[in-house]
Specification:
Elements lengths: L1 H11 L5 H8 L3 H14 L20 H13 L5 H10 L9 H10 L29 E6 L3 E2 L5 E9 L5 E7 L4 H15 L4 E4 L15 H8 L3 E4 L9 H14 L7 H17 L36 E4 L5 E4 L2 E4 L8 E6 L5 E5 L2 E8 L5 E3 L14
Length: about 400
């Protein structure tokens, strides 16, 4: 600014030509005459730096649309520009909503969003041994969200069940604990309504797994009796159930923080969030469509009468004792209390080894132990290995 005023004052002194001054100050003659014209029209005030901001904004987002974006963001704190763009189209009927980048700028301008750089290489590839679903109810993923305390001081363990193919959230239950009986009752109620899946995928936590043969627990044994294949993720590998973990993150942000006053209020909150997740929330993996557009209940029905397992004719069928022991050939083998009263099959293979099976799961072989007594080998068959009729 000081240089512009000095240029104009020297030009007004009539001791220099405009061409000479422009060469001296390193500016073009057009710029020099512009400064002189502005000085003649407005004096020193006319030389002030002017804003280059346009007077009109033909592409500016309509105020009403911007208000809708902010309102939806306040309702759903974890939704980003992609989801909000789809909501403007589907929910509000806007034919040409603002671009995703524009929505992102609106959120940042109002202080409700910040740029986050994604950490590269956070997770490795999905376990190749896991089933890739190709239809609804092919694979259900099951897990407990980390427990928390309600407003009245009681513990809440959210149990979530999701259809892996459609991302449809089948259940979000505020359980008082992670014990077998309560979890079993929840699954019975769910399967009476939604049917039975082909595969259930779980981690190694309670009550889904145990340290016994086949990692099977009382709950996973019940699943197998229903004709469901149980699929365990790798130890300490949450990426094997990545979409479920991602859902838990949104659940915590939108329906848990802060917790409700009691279990009934928390369950109502879970149900509202579940409906939004299934019917309103666009999913990027579904090309910004909603899970309800892909999901339908299973045609496989719950076996209410617990029909006994049927083994091939060349299998010797045994029943496990109430304390979890198997009696065979004058010996007693500890199989596990989870198998109490269950029927297992013994099969003599071509190598002369006695295999122990439960339904279509090869639990192990009866082999000599170091103490000179027979013990089942801790061998787990690969998925879909040697399936047996039920």
């Amino acid at each position: 600014m000081e240089e512009i005023i000095r240029f104009v004052m020297l030009a007004q002194s009539a001791h220099f030509t405009v061409t000479e001054l422009c060469e001296q100050f390193g500016i073009s003659r057009k710029t020099g005459y512009k400064h002189l014209e502005r000085y003649a029209a407005g004096g020193l005030k006319g030389l002030q730096v002017r804003s280059h901001r346009p007077h009109q904004f033909p592409q500016r987002t309509d105020t009403a649309v911007e208000a809708l974006i902010l309102a939806e963001r306040r309702l759903h704190r974890t939704w980003g520009p992609k989801k909000l763009h789809k909501v403007l189209e589907v929910k509000h009927g806007i034919e040409s909503p603002p671009a995703r980048s524009t929505i992102g700028e609106i959120l940042r301008r109002h202080g409700v969003s910040m740029r986050h750089r994604r950490k590269p290489g956070a997770y490795v590839a999905l376990n190749e041994g896991l089933t890739v679903p190709t239809r609804p109810n092919h694979v259900w993923t099951v897990d407990f969200k980390g427990w928390f305390l309600l407003g009245n001081g009681q513990r809440c363990d959210p149990l979530t069940v999701c259809d892996r193919y459609s991302h449809y959230l089948l259940a979000c239950r505020a359980q008082p604990n992670q014990q077998f009986k309560g979890t079993l009752q929840t699954f019975k109620a769910l399967m009476r309504q939604a049917g039975v899946p082909e595969v259930i995928r779980v981690d190694h936590g309670t009550p889904f797994a145990s340290i016994g043969l086949g990692r099977l627990s009382s709950l996973s044994i019940w699943w197998i009796e229903q004709g469901i294949a149980v699929e365990f993720t790798r130890l300490a590998s949450p990426q094997d159930n990545g979409s479920h973990e991602r859902m838990h993150r949104d659940l915590k942000a939108e329906a848990i923080n802060p917790p409700s006053v009691n279990a009934a209020a928390q369950q109502r909150r879970f149900e509202r969030w579940q409906h939004t997740y299934n019917h309103d929330r666009p999913h990027e993996s579904l090309n910004q469509q909603r899970p309800v557009e892909f999901y339908q209940p299973s045609s496989r029905r719950l076996n209410e009468h617990d029909k006994p397992l049927v083994y091939p004719v060349d299998f010797e069928v045994k029943r496990i004792s109430v304390s979890g022991f198997l009696a065979h050939a004058g010996e007693s083998y500890h199989v596990g209390e989870a198998f109490a009263h269950k029927r297992v099959g013994l099969h003599l293979n071509s190598n002369g080894q006695t295999e122990l099976h439960f339904a279509n799961v090869h639990l192990g072989n009866l082999t000599h132990g170091s103490a000179g007594r027979f013990r089942p080998a801790a061998y787990i068959a690969p998925p879909n290995h040697n399936p047996l009729a039920k």
